[in-house]
Amino acid sequence: MSAAGGPTVGIDVGGTKLLGVVLSAAGDVLHERRLPTPTGAESVVASLAELVAQLDEGSGTELPVGVGAPGLVDSTGRVLFAPNLPGVRDFPLAQRLSATLDGRPVVVDNDATCAGLGEVVHGVAQGTSYALMVTLGTGIGGGIVMEGRPLRGANGFAGEFGHMVVDPSGPLCPCGRRGCWERYASGSGLGRLAREAAHAGQGRRLVAMAGGDPEAVRGEHVTAAAAEGDTQARAVIERFAWWLAMGLANLANAFDPEVIVIGGGLIESAEVLMEATRSSLVEQVEAGPIRPLIRLEAAGLGERAGAVGAAVMARPGDR
Q1: What is the mean pLDDT of residues 36-51?
Q2: Which terminus of the chain has fewer CB atoms gathered within 10 Å of its CB, N or C?
Q3: Which residue blocks in the chain are alpha helix, DSSP H?
Q4: Is the pLDDT of residue 3 over 50?
């Protein structure tokens, strides 16, 4: 086992992949491995154990393990509810993975909480005391870091930003309710807005990029076409940015952060989206033109943010 201050393993459980890293005490990624995310709780445990074994082989020793999992994760590392992770519900992930790893220490926390801590300790939010993390993927995850420590709430469930209801009559969400913020402002939400535009005849370039089928249009087509300067794609981006900024403004009004970090592949490839969201945030947040500027930053750690934060969680004394 590693001593305090030594390397740790961090794994981010995504909807399509498990991304694992070995992180040094200084924040350097020493090794990285990834596997597809399987369906079902037991299969997830088996794949996580396989990924840990690969990272052990790269580091030459057995290291403490941190895991960032989507959804509601309690203080014991039990995943109660994960709408974007099929087959994992009310499952003691930390306990089961630790047992599979012959009793090795395992910490499991919410993936966006991990990502937020990673950005504060080793990423773009270093030096800040009040930071929010918003991750845009299939859904929207959130992490809150106040005075340098994760804020988890009474049950460990704080930060489920994506399930703020912004339109009670809106589209159905995987959580079972209608009009959740993530139906409008996630990667899948961008795709939905783009398909609506395509069906309305307002996305000719998007349809062409999707092979001629409006139903095949996805968020990545929008960001790519917008980067080319396509005006119809940029109109979709503007609409999406408004929805994104509306939720961010609500969060800013509630938490008064110094910085909001936006993660996810969607942001990494779309500076035009960040620009539109910054502008809309100033318009929608309370006293936007006169209050101190809220920094809105793309995640500096990129897709590694959750894994890096999970590795920070695994450090003795750092949870």
Answers
A1: 96
A2: N
A3: 41-59, 93-100, 111-122, 182-185, 187-199, 204-209, 219-228, 231-255, 265-268, 271-284, 305-313
A4: no
What does pTM read for this prediction?
0.90
CA distances from 55 to 12, 43, 141, 188 (A): 13, 18, 26, 31
CB 282 within 8 A of CB 246: no
Q: Any idea of the CA torsion for 18, 181, 89, 77, to the nearest 10 degrees?
A: 70
Is the CATH number 3.30.420.40 carried by domain 126-299? Answer: yes
- Please tell us whether the domain made up of 8-118+304-313 is placed in CATH 1.10.357.10: no
User: CA–CA distance from 108 to each of 146, 158, 222, 237, 248 (Å)?
Assistant: 20, 15, 35, 35, 26
Q: What is the pLDDT of residues 68-85, one digit of tens each?
A: 999 899 999 999 998 778
Q: Which amino acid is at 30?
A: L
Cα separation of 282 and 121, whole Å? 27
β-strand partners of 36: 17
CA distance 307 to 312: 9
CATH 3.30.420.40, the chain: domain bounds: 8-118+304-313, 126-299
- 144-153 tens-digit pLDDT: 999 989 999 9
Query: Taking the alpha carbons of 173, 44, 300, 158 in that order, is the dihedral positive or negative?
Result: positive
